[in-house]
Design a protein that fits this description.
alpha+beta, SH3 type barrels, Alpha-Beta Plaits, 3 domains, five-stranded antiparallel sheet, three-stranded antiparallel sheet, 12 strands, 52% helix
């Protein structure tokens, strides 16, 4: 295998290979790949390099997780995430270094041209390098977003939805700018990507309309913020809390702990009920009926006592009781209460209040009537029966 003497590292590596081959003859054997000869030594050394980088990565991860990061970051998941990211980044650097040692660089015969001509030519290794760095960019940006949202934004805003939206927008900007830098650093001219962009345009026109539509809708959601993480929404028959807004879909967690994946285009194009768009305070209606013999003022007093005694009913706005009207068998009232803790479990709050109302009515001997119907028997039927 031939090497260009381009630096001390390559020269030292070749001397190391020659030394091992001379002292351990059976490692001097090898095989050909696309007219290039590789000895067993040249295959083993990259694995040893990866092994060493793996050890360094594990040590770095352990130091970050157990000694360094806990001094500055309280969230354990964030600490683990940064530690793992550091380890994987070191492994990727080790892989790049290992491949370069065996000659899999720009001058390798394996670096075949894929498309383009002249200055716009794109080769295999160049494209692989760009893909790896872009993937690493996306991965690291996601971890940085987590740190930014949990460690920085949490100090200035209690609204997790706002923090997530700002973090996602910064992540996208980071990816776009980083992508341009990676492509320029890889010496791939943007003009050589015209063919790829044209093929992508045709793909969007024929088969990727939904993906493109959902992606654009995701951007609209992030910038316009009709919904955000933490909101309670209803889309069609789906009702739950927004736990994630990704480029393609919005994840909603229902009360049964079921994750519903809703395409972003549905959130934009369909009617969406957002229970906590501007404010997490929600007013609930608790209908109550009592017997006609009861005093409406007394009933109002009892219902307000029940509302004031519940810890999750807000004092401001204050609860209120409306006298709705005269029903067929009852006086109908509507207890109005405000809460900011039960917007995802309205039935639970209503159930608790109904239990308390029942106990209060029982304590004050308030009658809850059964449905009543008046039956009128015609006298003609009585006379007919008498004649018989």
């Amino acid at each position: 295998m031939s090497f260009q003497d381009t630096g001390e590292r390559i020269s030292f590596y070749q001397q190391l290979v020659n030394y091992i081959n001379e002292n351990i003859p059976f490692l001097g054997g090898g095989f050909n790949i696309l007219e290039e000869y590789f000895s067993y030594t040249e295959i083993i050394i990259p694995f040893l390099i990866m092994f060493l980088f793996n050890i360094v990565g594990n040590i770095s991860r352990s130091l970050l997780i157990n000694r360094i990061l806990p001094r500055y970051i309280e969230d354990r998941k964030t600490v683990l995430s940064i530690g793992n990211t550091t380890k994987y980044a070191l492994l990727l650097i080790g892989l790049t270094f290992a491949l370069s040692t065996i000659g899999l660089g720009s001058e390798s015969i394996l670096n075949q041209p894929l498309f383009g001509e002249g200055e716009n030519e794109v080769r295999l290794f160049d494209l692989v390098r760009v893909i790896i760095w872009l993937a690493l960019l996306v991965f690291i940006s996601g971890k940085l977003k987590t740190v930014f949202v949990k460690q920085v934004m949490s100090r200035y805003s209690d609204d997790i939805g706002v923090s997530q939206s700002i973090g996602t927008i910064i992540q996208y900007i980071f990816i776009i700018l980083g992508g341009f830098i990676v492509i320029q650093a890889s010496q791939i001219h943007l003009g050589s990507l015209n063919l790829l962009a044209g093929a992508l345009g045709v793909g969007i026109g024929f088969g990727l309309q939904n993906i493109a539509n959902n992606f654009i809708s995701g951007l609209i959601i992030l910038f316009e913020r009709p919904i955000k993480v933490g909101d309670r929404i209803e889309v069609g028959e789906v009702s739950g809390d927004v736990v994630r807004v990704s480029p393609r879909a919005t994840t909603v967690n229902t009360n049964d702990n079921i994750s519903m994946i809703i395409p972003n285009s549905d959130v934009i194009n369909k009617q969406v009920i957002n229970w906590s768009h501007n404010d997490r305070r929600i007013r609930f209606h608790i209908p109550v009926g009592v017997s006609y013999k009861e005093d409406p003022a007394h009933i109002k007093q009892i219902l307000l006592e029940v509302a004031d005694g519940h810890k999750d009913v807000l004092k401001r706005p204050a609860p209120d009781v409306l006298f709705i009207g005269y029903g067929e068998s009852s006086l109908d009232f509507d207890l109005l209460v405000w809460t900011n803790t039960y917007i995802d479990r309205p039935i639970i709050l209503k159930s608790q209040l109904y239990y308390l109302i029942f106990e209060k009515f029982k304590e004050h001997n308030v009658e809850i009537p059964y449905p009543q119907r008046d039956l009128h028997i015609k006298s003609g039927l009585h006379q007919k029966n008498s004649s018989k």
